[in-house]
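Lab notes, practical 5.
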Amino acid sequence: MHTNKDDLIDLNRRATLSCIDLVARVRPDDLRRPTPCAEWDLSDLLAHMTVQHRGFAAAAAGDGKDFDWTPRRLAPDFADAYAAAANEALKAFDQPGALERAFVLPEIPSADSFPGTQAVSFHFIDALVHGWDVARSIDAAYDIPADFAALAVRIARAVPGGPYRERPNASFGPAVELADGASPLDTVLCALGRSPRWPKGQGVVW
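Output from the prediction step:
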């Protein structure tokens, strides 16, 4: 399946805006809740998600190598800060020539840099999967739109594997065995190291 640049930008924008809406539903009392990323509570996860958006924005501007990707402690206005960071990334992707630039993404060490469209595809899948993480943590319903499905599955299966997926605080763990007849969302989750059954049964360890 071929997805052109404009379609990818549109899907990524929609996925990111949906994630903003989810984070806006998080209350301060929720921040200590567990998440499918076993080493992170919801506060840790949102801090990671926020800095990732800022890092992608920096990479779109050619500064991904020098950007400090270390998550910061959440401020009281964490939902507003998250929305600002997410919109910063979307704005950066829209800049003329941004997607023709090589993106340096140190947290994906399988290559020195990535083509702009591939980097946006990573941002898209990040929004989908971390959106699910947040939804599961706060017991919110979550699914992906039908027109996201084929692209999301293709990208998830193409995300580089390797030892970095096994290190502490990795965004994506080693792939989980996929059940027969799995939905597109479950296929994406399993490809990126998450159990669709979380928190029941064998939970996600990443």
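Observations recorded by the TA: The radius of gyration is 16 Å. Residues 201-206 have pLDDT under 50 and may be disordered.
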